[in-house]
């Protein structure tokens, strides 16, 4: 059989509209039937679905009704990804969603979708398939979940619109598992379309905007790109943990409800706590440092981090997932910088090695250049970065912080010079870092602190922390901080504390930048920003 | 050399008191010196620490001053756990805390501690060690961190008070890394003592109560038992993820800030959210179910869960770590029950296999019986559980919920009959479960739901969820729930949803019960309850 989606492109707009209308009407009918059956959940109607006495397909199609665990079938469902030419001639059972459904005379073509994979199923009225069965199947609304029993057949030409291009299923049985409403708030195909318009005809195709996507997130998440993005995001967490565990890090969990605002009271969410109030932690830093003072040596934690910033940008969320680490070092904080650098290389290599299919699926919708990195990672001094910017015509002071445009420009300059999308900037000016940052021992204009960048945007900020309580107090006072407010923080270091350094990484930002995506809402499954609290 | 802690037991109380006083005085002196040096962080005073011109140890002891990363030493520090009889005769550098320090004439004995491990270090005035060095070392306060260079020596008799019992270090160099204050709010040795009193003499020993421990958590966490508890807790998370990843689960992250109270509005913390308000999620359930409706198939998430319950019991926290999973199944929710059962067996076996030393360290302070489990897991019907309770004299209705005492009694009965500390209770009465629980297809008195228990306490509650929107609405109405309030929840299932089941596990509870501990505050690094928000 041919490629039905490609065929569809040739059909006239008018005919398409009519076909859609007919399909919708039929779908509503099928749905009402499915709903009636669903409302009667105690009735096992598997055997009663076919109607006429002369139906050759009787008992080979229909609705299961609501699956209520009345029977544990020993049937094996084959993943769509396993339906390859190796199985040609075999009968398989497959469960999937109807991605595309099209009837054409005595034939019906379905594309069945399962996460990133899809396969074509064909029904043709004949020896095994009755008119009644064809009618039933072609009336099932798109996005419904069905079980198909079919024979794997080689296709004469590649089916471009499916992941399984060399085979299709010649359908023998079709059972409805769960019906979708016929009217969808968005079409998965529209949501899966690249933003970039290919040609004039493509310009007529619907694109789904970010808010519509997020309002209907469960449909939006069904696109191949989204299926892949969140699998890759899980991969980043796995690789982060794996890299650090190998080096002796211990996973810890830190409280999100805290008694005092962790970073000075700005941008913090307040919580009613019984008769009093509390705050949501803006960072697990204090707790990571306490774990170090408590002899856990090297720790990491993955968890929610909250920022009450009223920023509606492409890269800010009010709640995100923090990948935080902290490490006691022996003699020099570069031991920690090296550890973090290696960890990122482990992540980048692991993604290339294990998530090739996902990256490809994402790039089909969101094209991007492959992510370049050096091994070992490129480390530049802050002063070198400033020099590069000055050479490019930027005027700035030695100890001025990097503005967002300068940060991005520096990323481009570094890429041009060193061909890397990842680099480390070390020895930031002391003046632009928090009070607990250790000054450089040679020159207090600088500090033992670092940022790391992906495609020119900061993804981790870290430093050697001051582990000496007297010096910490002195630095806090120099910053005009009321030391009585941070007494418990300072006291954490009074009973012997090893020198230590660490940092915090935003998970969504790492995934966004690795993939070259344009908005952090694309890498948060259920994003939170000042204007969005649902779904 | 002998075992200094054992020797200590024989010393008279009076002498001990005097020695302690002297030590404290000396320690204060040493500390002031260390502090003075620490306040002068830019000065590298390594070479200036020894004073007199005729000091044979000159340059072999002193303080590093605050380690500010001025030099990256290439020295290799040997972990204390690696200091075994294999290294006898070799010189090693070791970093650790002074756990015990005792001077005796021209000798000084230290026990150096590193997480769960410890080793004895000996200094004796002679060829390599001057009086000045001995004085310096014996004046360093307990809990300070030091670097020791020493020769590994076999000991004539086992040193019971150290983890390294066959060797000690003959000290050649000692450098102060970070000084502790001399006066400690609790002694790590006291915090490490078993609650059970061994004998009359032991009854005089100080025990540290729960609040003092938590108020001084960074010291309390340094005990071998606590070092082991939180390493084992990290192990539970690792094993949970490993078991589920192997079965194709995808890790997801769900928002903690939500727009409406997830479970009806009781026991929920309110958050100020810019000009409006929001809530803290009591469970990731809705989001897990949405991920299932969005085709992720099998998902898990580890994250903070919040309960505004004003319960001050041994097993309630206001914030805990949830290990949550949700899984689309094919035909029967027992596919999910089996998956969770296997996962627990993977965890129990993994702990036995990889955390033997930690379990031993914990049992030395908190004795418990080894955790027993069957493979495959024991599954009982709720009605069977009720029968067992009735046989033991309990009067209860068929569809009455398990009270906490009955839950515990049933645990004892199951243990006596089946010799397992882990079992699954299936088919709970529908009446005691939430509206979204799928009724049993045979008899609506029961439901497709389950709890699992460790040592007679519930650690996971789960069920097949209703995936049909019409039936879900009908059940909500029967529960008297205003369906307009949960519209978005119901709408999640309108576009085709596979049958699914899942559950949520409390991490701290699993660790507490596995180890037979008596309080959940022992397994939360920084616990939160209605009365505690710090540290």
Walkthrough of the structure:
Two copies of one chain form a homodimer. With 535 residues, the first copy, chain A, is of the alpha+beta class. Helices cover 32% and strands 22% of the residues of chain A. The radius of gyration of chain A is 29 Å and the shape is elongated. Chain A has three domains: 61-178, Beta Barrel (OB fold (Dihydrolipoamide Acetyltransferase, E2P)), CATH 2.40.50.140; 188-220, no CATH class; 224-522, Bira Bifunctional Protein, Domain 2 (BirA Bifunctional Protein, domain 2, 2-Layer Sandwich), CATH 3.30.930. In chain A, the strands form three sheets. The first copy, chain A, has an eight-stranded mixed sheet, sandwiched between helices. Chain A has a five-stranded mixed β-barrel with strand order 2-3-4-6-5. A three-stranded antiparallel sheet of chain A has the order 8-10-9, with no helix packed on it. In chain A, helix 8 (224-246) packs across helix 10 (334-354). The first copy, chain A, has 16 helices and 17 strands. At the A-B interface, helix 7, helix 8, strand 7, strand 8 and strand 9 of A face helix 7, helix 8, strand 7, strand 8 and strand 9 of B.
């Amino acid at each position: 059989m041919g490629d039905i989606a490609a065929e569809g492109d040739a059909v006239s707009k008018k005919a398409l509209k009519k076909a859609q209308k007919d399909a919708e009407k039929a779908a509503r009918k099928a749905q009402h039937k499915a709903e009636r059956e669903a409302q009667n959940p105690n009735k096992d109607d598997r055997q009663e679905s076919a109607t006429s006495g002369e139906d050759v397909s009787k008992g080979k199609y229909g609705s299961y009704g609501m699956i209520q665990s009345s029977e544990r079938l020993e049937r094996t469902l084959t993943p769509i990804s396993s339906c390859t030419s190796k199985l040609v001639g075999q009968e398989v059972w497959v469960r999937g969603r109807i991605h595309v459904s099209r009837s054409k005379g005595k034939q019906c073509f379905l594309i069945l979708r399962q996460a990133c994979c899809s396969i074509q199923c064909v029904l043709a009225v004949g020896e095994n398939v009755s008119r009644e069965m064809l009618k039933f199947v072609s009336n099932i609304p798109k996005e419904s979940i069905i079980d198909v029993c079919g024979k794997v057949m080689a296709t004469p030409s590649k089916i471009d619109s499916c992941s399984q291009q060399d085979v299709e299923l010649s359908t023998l049985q079709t059972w409805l598992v769960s019906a979708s409403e016929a009217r969808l708030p968005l079409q998965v195909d529209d949501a899966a379309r690249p933003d970039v318009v290919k040609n004039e005809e493509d310009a007529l195709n619907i694109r789904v905007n970010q808010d519509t996507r997020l309002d209907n997130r469960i449909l939006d998440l069904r696109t191949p790109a989204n299926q892949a993005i969140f699998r890759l995001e899980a991969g980043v967490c796995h690789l982060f943990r794996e890299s650090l565990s190998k080096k002796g890090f211990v996973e810890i969990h830190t409280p999100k409800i805290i008694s005092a605002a962790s970073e000075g009271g700005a941008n913090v969410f307040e919580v009613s706590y019984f008769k009093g109030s509390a705050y949501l932690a803006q960072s697990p830093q204090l707790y990571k440092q306490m774990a170090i003072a408590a002899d856990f040596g090297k720790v990491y934690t993955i968890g929610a981090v909250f920022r009450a910033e009223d920023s509606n940008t492409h890269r800010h969320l009010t709640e995100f997932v923090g990948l935080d680490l902290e490490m006691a070092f022996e003699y020099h904080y570069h031991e920690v910088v090296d550890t973090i650098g290696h960890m990122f290389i482990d992540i980048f290599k692991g993604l290339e090695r294990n998530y090739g299919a996902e990256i490809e699926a994402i790039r089909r919708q969101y094209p991007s250049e492959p992510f370049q990195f050096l091994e070992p990672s490129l480390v530049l001094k802050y002063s070198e970065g400033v020099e590069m910017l000055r050479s490019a015509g930027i005027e700035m002071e030695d100890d001025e912080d990097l503005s967002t445009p300068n940060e991005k420009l520096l990323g481009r300059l570094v890429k041009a010079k060193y061909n890397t999308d990842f680099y480390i900037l070390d020895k930031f000016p002391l003046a632009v870092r928090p009070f607990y940052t250790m000054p450089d021992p040679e020159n207090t204009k600088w500090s033992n602190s670092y940022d790391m960048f992906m495609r020119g945007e900061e993804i981790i900020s870290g430093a050697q922390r001051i582990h000496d309580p007297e010096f910490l107090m002195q630095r806090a006072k120099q910053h005009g901080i009321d030391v009585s407010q941070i007494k418990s923080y300072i006291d954490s270091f009074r009973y012997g504390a090893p020198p230590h350094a660490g940092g915090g990484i935003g998970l969504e930002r790492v995934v966004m930048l690795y993939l070259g995506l344009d908005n952090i809402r694309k890498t948060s499954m259920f994003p939170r920003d000042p204007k969005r609290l649902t779904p």
